[in-house]
Amino acid sequence: MLATDVAPxxxxxxxxxxDLARRINEAPFELTPDTRERLTARMAHLxxxxxxSAWAAEVDGELVGCALALVRDGMWFLSLLxxxxxxxxxxxxxxxxxxxxxxxxxxxxxxxxxxxxxxxRYQRAGFALHPTYTAKGVPDRAAIPAVSxxxxxxxxxxxxxxxxxxxxxxxxxxxxxxFYAERGSSIAVVPGxxxxxxxxxxxxxxxxVDEATARDLLWTVLAEATEPVEIDWLGADQQWGVDVxxxxxxxxxxxxxxxxxxxxxxSPYLPSGAFG
Length: 276
Prior knowledge:
Layout: H1 6-23, H2 33-49, E1 54-59, E2 62-72, E3 75-83, H3 92-100, E4 108-111, H4 116-124, E5 128-137, E6 151-152, H5 157-169, H6 179-182, E7 187-190, E8 194-199, E9 202-208, H7 211-224, E10 229-234, H8 239-247, E11 251-261, E12 269-270
Parallel strand pairs: 3-4
Antiparallel strand pairs: 1-2, 2-3, 4-11, 5-10, 5-11, 6-7, 7-8, 8-9, 9-12
């Protein structure tokens, strides 16, 4: 994958995700200016930071898919695998995954979509499937408790994020150190103990060294959210998060799978779909 592939592949990603959303009866995936900027930044970042793990699929001169992965401190994570509608079911996704897996390690993992073909592909590649729930809805503001020790912003976020990620997943922050801050994202931090990257509809990333800190951070996420929220990756080992979401009167529904191959389970942790 080349840097010049990023812009056209963002268009492919929009078409692919919108097609999936419609097939599973979810709201259309709209390519707003903010969404375009977010997708472009993520794709460009990974193409630059991990070029040997960035692959594009081309058919008759047309870009029809890509695979993006990253390797941090011996941990491999698949950030994106997509094939444009109309080209799916032709073996392109398998070829992209096989190419991406050439940089995989003995600690590898994937956050799957609910697409049956993707789930099957990952399981056949040796990844164990760990189903999760997704919580959605408008938080009950009256149920949100006051928390102490959490601050939004501050220069210490990178150090805390690096420490917590090393504890949870055995791999530090790496090239992502300035990604969210440079884009103006709000980051909630309990110095030395936990972090949450905030977004209007919930969290883009949350990790902590203990469940009490994780609960406080998730309550902060819900308090700061300005839209109906969606909290993903609530697996069997994230009961602390399930408790918070139910206490906030959110609705739990079946989510996608965390797919692990050698990478231990990580908790308390709500991973980043982009960076693991």
